[in-house]
């Protein structure tokens, strides 16, 4: 397996534009997590899915953020409209649901909103 | 952070020395895991310790867990320059939330 795949690796966009980040989890993994990493706030859990269903989105910062998982092999995180304070590295991770399993991370998407 | 804190925030040691970093967390857990992040990369899993375990070893890594104090420590023995990275603890909570601590930035000087 190629691991968790995120795209794009880098995204530079203007304030007010819509941004869509994509993630392909490892085949067979049924839990998927979206994290945001900044120097100020560290690694924040934004939302996680179990069997394609959003379980906890309490970490999503505001209504401008939305996430979907239409099937077991694809998830998106959308920011509309984007703001400079959304600049961060966004990570997707997946794992098998159940006790005592490790998470596998993608390489992240570095988002810069100017 | 959403779950806990790590200390120290930064640690600088000479090659060959041991490095110890600590993690405190807030809620009940199924297990606690440690991850490593090289600059600009994703996180990589190092070791997992279950809530009913007190100590675990893997190569040069030693992890302890004290659930009564809600704390864990990671010891890297005989450090190498290649160990330079950020280290994060992650708590696997009962609701399947997976929260990370604030991280420790380790620099090993050759």
In short:
The complex is a heterodimer of chains A (114) and B (110). Chain A contains no helices and eleven strands.
Describe the protein:
- The complex is a heterodimer of chains A (114) and B (110).
- With 114 residues, chain A is mostly beta strands.
- Helices cover 0% and strands 54% of the residues of chain A.
- Chain A is built from no helices and eleven strands.
- Chain A has strands spanning 5-7, 10-13, 19-24, 31-38, 42-50, 53-56, 65-71, 74-79, 88-95, 104-105, 109-113.
- In chain A, strands 2, 4, 5, 6, 9, 10 and 11 form a seven-stranded mixed sheet that branches. Chain A has a four-stranded antiparallel sheet with strand order 1-3-8-7, with no helix packed on it.
- The termini of chain A are far apart.
- The mean pLDDT of chain A is 94.
- Chain B is an all-beta fold and 110 residues long.
- Chain B is built from no helices and eleven strands.
- In chain B, the strands form two sheets. In chain B, strands 2, 4, 5, 9, 10 and 11 form a six-stranded mixed sheet that branches. A five-stranded antiparallel sheet of chain B has the order 1-3-8-7-6, with no helix packed on it.
- In chain B, a hairpin with a 4-residue loop joins β7 and β8 (71-76).
- The N and C termini of chain B lie far apart (32 Å).
- The mean pLDDT of chain B is 92.
- The A-B interface holds A 4, 31, 33, 35, 41-45, 48, 50, 55-56, 59, 91, 93, 95, 97, 99-100, 102-108 and B 1-2, 30-31, 33, 35, 41-45, 48, 50, 88, 90, 92, 95-103.
